[in-house]
Queue: 3 jobs
Job 1
Amino acid sequence: MIKAGIIGATGYTGVELMRLLAPRKDVSIEVVTSRELSGTPVADVFPNLRGYLDVVFTEPDTETLAACDVVFYATPHTVAMNTASELLARGVRVIDLSADFRLQDQAVWEAWYKTAHTCPELIDQAVYGLPEVNHESITDAKLIAVPGCYPTAVQLGYLPLLEAGLIDTSSLIADCKSGVSGAGRKAAVGSLLCESSESMKAYAVAGHRHLPEIRQGLTKFSGKDVGLTFIPHLTPMIRGIHATLYASPIAEVSQEQLQALFESRYADSPFVDVLPAGSEPATRNVRGSNRCQIAVHYLPESQKIVVLSVIDNLVKGASGQAVQNMNLMFGLTETAGLDVVALLP
Ligand SMILES: NC(=O)C1=CN([C@@H]2O[C@H](COP(=O)(O)OP(=O)(O)OC[C@H]3O[C@@H](n4cnc5c(N)ncnc54)[C@H](OP(=O)(O)O)[C@@H]3O)[C@@H](O)[C@H]2O)C=CC1
Ligand SMILES: CC(=O)N[C@@H](CCC(=O)OP(=O)(O)O)C(=O)O
């Protein structure tokens, strides 16, 4: 039985971790933290978990958390970097859903997150938790940096093209849309129903903190510098990321060749579903599931490749991917507890 702790269990990703882990017979959720709701039973706040999880929120406390085999940080950026090293020193495996250990260049991280990194010595030890790329190293990892939601959708979409060296890397364009749960559960005017429904807008056009994370991954896949324009948009849905990715081939390509490339690259990836040629994936078809659905199109008239990639930001974009990493770290079946069909409608 794997003993698990969740720091920040009242946020959207924390609640999603509880939803995915509570029914499992091979995992026991021992500690769930919330500073605000310490002392309150989980089911009083989240009645969907009644009968599945009989624990009480507690204050985050290293001593209590150290009794776990694995601790998930479902906390805002800059929390994990202050206490993860104590847990690791006590033999606990750490899976961080925030960005504290995602960027390998400390200076770049500090520039984008606008603060000094308090635990730079762990940056090199952290494994970037994208199993479709780092499957082997995740198995041996003690500390996982779970990728961000946009970076998951964008990297999985561009990966086969970059590894195969098929596209011009100097001017990639990632046009991305997110549901409002991506902004977290904290009260914020922009997340109010009256502000976010019946409307759609781009944001962080001048620079979003996922830009360096995506660029870091794409550069590794291609072995070349990558020029990337990444524009996120807020859309009036709760869950979902839709990424439309543009690329120019450097030599002649065909739809059949691209389709075969994507299908063979993801043949052994249980959570990447390459759709038939001509498909137009929708976020609703991955809602609540850990799947990334991808369609690749070649447009002969403009000579552009367009990849469409959709995920649920809270599942493959965060908590589901975190559980996928846990499964690999503990030698379990990669799909354990994640074989869930998307919710429709
Ligand atoms: N929402 C999404 O789609 C995605 C989120 N992420 C990342 O996952 C992390 C969590 O996101 P999300 O669930 O949306 O966030 P929320 O804002 O919904 O929840 C944050 C949680 O962290 C706790 N918390 C806040 N500050 C601290 C602190 N200093 N120490 C301990 N606990 C703290 C809060 O509880 P309390 O204050 O009561 O302690 C709360 O439970 C973030 O880093 C986010 O960037 C990644 C990918 C997608
Ligand atoms: C819609 C929305 O606000 N999305 C968030 C990104 C989601 C997320 O939390 O990603 P990180 O883990 O990297 O922070 C944003 O743009 O800030």
Job 2
Amino acid sequence: MTAPSRPTVAVLGAGSWGTALAALLARNDVPTRLWGRDADALAEMASARRNLRYLPDLDLPPELGYEADLATAVRGAGIVLIVVPSHAFASVLDEIIPMLDPGARISWATKGFETGTGRFLHELVNEKLPGHPAAVVTGPSFAREVTAGLPSAVTVHATDEAFGKELAVLLHAPNFRAYTGNDILGAELGGAMKNVLAVATGVADGMELGLNARAGLITRGMNEMLRLGVALGARAETLMGLAGLGDLVLTCTGDLSRNRRLGLALGKGIPLQEAVRQIGQVVESVVTADEVARLAGFHGLDLPISAAVRAVLHGEVTPEEGVRQLMGREQKAEYPVDLFANRRA
Ligand SMILES: NC(=O)C1=CN([C@@H]2O[C@H](COP(=O)(O)OP(=O)(O)OC[C@H]3O[C@@H](n4cnc5c(N)ncnc54)[C@H](OP(=O)(O)O)[C@@H]3O)[C@@H](O)[C@H]2O)C=CC1
Ligand SMILES: O=C(CO)COP(=O)(O)O
């Protein structure tokens, strides 16, 4: 019996996560092409079989293809997986639209919103590519640990159940569990918001405020994610799952997180630009904090931790003032609003 044919996947974005996912797919015998905007870096990857800048410890599988021309990477691909930073998502999407096969399915592992509008990435995909099945790959997954073959679990939420299942199966590997779901909005919100909240716990840890502060921030951060998510129409269980709580815990506590490391640096008094320069990779919270504030504003929600992170990133308050303001808030009920009221009605 012949094995079912597998679609070619074009992975767009050759940073840490794009390279890690492309290597995972290629190891799973999925025909995979990795595109990056830096042709020299791609040529080096092909010859050294390593991504020396972003994932120097990973041996890239010989089956993985590299393509410096975007149109050649995308043409004929049954699935496109976009893994560029959120600020570049819309422009990459616009560029590929005329290159796509009519039946191409669109997926992304980017965490964030459209910069400047607060629009979700699935909203952009639905608007610009109506009718193309769409899916997001998200959850607690440091690229370095995935490439080291350490056990990880992610989740794939899709507009089309069959596509979500197919993509999850292509990604699923002995030490990489890929679950599925159909709440794209909730899955995207969790992945984006945890980056902002990781800065808060990083700041607290950088200021050596202790373990109680860290746990308090994670839990109250979860409360902010739930309140914004439910207001937007996300399902609470998505936010309590891998896409929300799972990634929140990972990013708030794991020093591999660039967003947490940004917070640690700010908490130690290192200026924002210097901290971002030292990290040397994308730190999504720097743009996502503004978009979370925008969404909270649209829905009339007060999200004090997210707002404090935004204010610290803009230099409007110092980390010390931010902590003082959070601790000085009035006493209140832990959950003043019944999050599940609609369901019980
Ligand atoms: N790393 C991780 O563990 C995980 C990351 N993610 C998410 O994946 C996304 C990508 O992050 P990650 O790979 O880690 O980031 P990195 O900083 O490791 O790499 C970013 C990559 O994006 C490329 N890039 C930047 N701007 C553009 C652009 N305008 N057009 C095309 N390519 C561009 C960079 O190219 P160049 O080198 O030329 O600048 C680089 O290859 C983020 O949204 C992140 O939150 C999600 C889960 C895990
Ligand atoms: O999203 C991630 C892990 O799930 C990576 O987090 P950072 O971008 O903070 O490194």
Job 3
Amino acid sequence: MSFPLRLGRFSLCRPIVNCTRPIPNLSLRMASSTPAPRFAEGEDPHQLSSDTTTLQQQGWALDAEGMGVTKTFHFKSYFKAVSFLNMIAAESSVKKHHPTMTIRFGSVDVHWTTHHPRGLTHKDIALARHCDAGAGLIGAVEPGQGLKCGPETK
Ligand SMILES: C[C@H](O)[C@H](O)[C@H]1CNC2=NC(N)=NC(=O)C2=N1
């Protein structure tokens, strides 16, 4: 078949992608962009797999290494975002398990992982659930409904 293909008044250009030839390593590349969870030593992998799946259905994502979970919570005021962060900080102090948090004008990014033993643990799962419960109480909103300042996308 030669391009451009003439069809009366219309002409069809050569397709950009040749669909008949498989793209090498496509499955490999897809696999590496979707990390598998890596649970810490001593954890129950069956229980944690199921708990992690449930969290993913609640908007949590595995981090790049599969050793932690992350989620951004959105709020309609900076005060609510700060209150949420403080609520998490208080529980972290009680449970002796601490997240990495980034606060913005109308959102908070939360990342839970366990440093020792290294990997995802039941503590990360429990505290991620605590975040979801607290976000509900403080009045988190859907992404896009939160307060925004400047050109930031989050
Ligand atoms: C002694 C103290 O409880 C430990 O160092 C705690 C502190 N907070 C922690 N937080 C997190 N995220 N992972 C840990 O392994 C951890 N260890």
